[in-house]
Every structure is written in structure tokens, then in C-alpha cells.
Specification:
The chain is of the alpha/beta class. It has helices at about 10-25, 45-55, 80-90, 100-110, 155-170, 175-200, 220-225, 240-255, 270-280, 300-315; strands at about 40-45, 60-65, 90-95, 115, 130, 210, 225-230, 260, 280-285. Helix content is about 40%, strand content about 10%.
Length: about 325
Amino acid sequence: MNVRRLIPTAAVASVTVLGLTALSACSAASGDGRNSAGKLEVVASFYPMQYLAEQIGGDHVAVTNLTKPGQEPHDLEISAKQTADLQDAGVALYIKGLQPAVDDAIQQSGIKTKVDAASLTHLEKHGTEVGGHAEEHDHEHGGEGGRDPHIWLDPVKYAEVAEGVGRAFEKADPDHAAAYKKNTAALVGKLGGLDTRFKDGLKNTDSKVFITTHAAFGYLAERYGLTEEAISGLDPESEPSAARVKDLQNMAKADGVTTVFYETLVSDRTAKTLAGDAHLKTDVLDPLEGITDNSKGDDYIQVMDSNLKALQKALGAK
């Protein structure tokens, strides 16, 4: 993920705090975190949190996503309107450490229920080489305490988060607790089916190694016995060193790698350069930070199924 803006400037932080202070004094919120229709107001930091809120909340919630479609989540700066949305909300869903501007805004807000998805499952440290028998690295990766925040790309971890979000919704809105519990169970079932498709679909492959622009798929790789090799590690737009390119070329030949994956929200230039030099193909592996017109699917499940097909093709699934 792009970490160039993970540490906001003092000016941005100051503006955020000032905006929150001013708006908190004049907020028109009823104080119970509900909109005029009586629905629980939920603010999600970016798409994976929005999807959870909508699937679990159903008709009983009104969900606002702070990150617009096509926007790189780390680049988000909180606007005055978004600050007002936060002040009016009853629940905020986010991953602490992923979007510092969001962390600051939520911390300063008066929201009663603040759900940090990272606290609902176990986070690990990942580097440029992740999964399989890859050597562990301690490169910081943008999450809380330098831990990898990409938990939503592992269906099992995402299901753990979903269960925690469901419990938080039940507590925040007990009148509709039964509906939240039912919706959570349905979502966990969907994610269980997705996990089964990945396990079965990646069980027998010619290769277990895949190359990406940056290390977003570490949890997925570990879950399904694969190894992810990232070109540039933390920043998908940075130029890899000549030594790293050479290592990847040698590794691709040795491990039967056929494809270099890039993602939808950043330039594919680095991936295509490496692929061209090593005579490899390129394809999209979507980290699902947002749904756009370029996404291969309309929601989380559909895009993850597209990711599975891309991996099966690249790895030579039988």
C-alpha cells in the first residue's frame, strides 16, 4: 500500500482537530447516532468496512464511506462535511493505523461506538516476501505497530472481523440485535464459502509463488499455502532497485512464475516493466480498497472470486 502519506503533516492534523472542535459545537445531530428516518448512522473508513456495515446492518443502518471510489485510502484527508458526518454517527468502522487522518478524526469525535477492525483479529508483520516458506521480515507495513493491515484479503480473518462488527452493532442498537445477528451469520457463511473456493481452487497448482507490485496479499498467501513476492515492498509506485529486479527475474524462472500482478488504484508501469524484462504476463490482483468501474465485480465477494480466477490462471491450477 502507498505509505508516502501515512504520517499526516502537522498542518493537516491541526485543521482536522480545529474542524472537529468547531463542528462538534454546532452539530445538528440528535445525539443518539440515528438519522431522521431512525436508522443507525454508520461511518466506514473505506470500502472493506463499508461492505461489512451494509451486509450486517441491512435496512437498519445508513452507511457513509469516507473514501470515495477510486481514491487511494491512505491519501484521504478529512473534509468539513466528513467531520460533520462523523459527529452525527452512532458507529465508526476503521482499521487503526491504516488511515491516520481517519484515526485522528474518530479519536476527536463524540461517536459512542468506535470499532477498530484490527482489534478483532490477529495482525502480523509482513515484508516483501510473505507466505509459504518465505523468510519473515520485519519491515513496517503501515498498520498499527508496523503490522500488516490487509486483513480483509483473508476471508477467514475478515469473517472474524465481521463477527466482532456484528456484536458491536447489536450493542449499539439493541432493538435490532436479532437482525444484526442473523445478517452476521449469513455474511460469515458467504465468507466461509469463499474460503472453501480458495482452498479447493489453489490446492493443486504448478507454482506456489506469485509477484505483486506491493505486499498486500500476505495473509491470503499464508492462508492458502502460497508465497507472495512484492516488487517494491511498501510503496507500489516506487522504483525497485536493480538488485531486486534481478532477484525477481531469477526467482520467476526458478519457481515457474508466469505473471506479474498489478492493482487497480495505482500505475501498472513498474509491473509491466518487470514483466517485459522477464518475459512475463501481467494481470490484475485487486486489493479491494475500493470498487470502481475498473473492478472485476460489483462487490467484495465478486472481486475476490475474480482474484481467485486470476491466481488459478497464473499459478497453473489443475
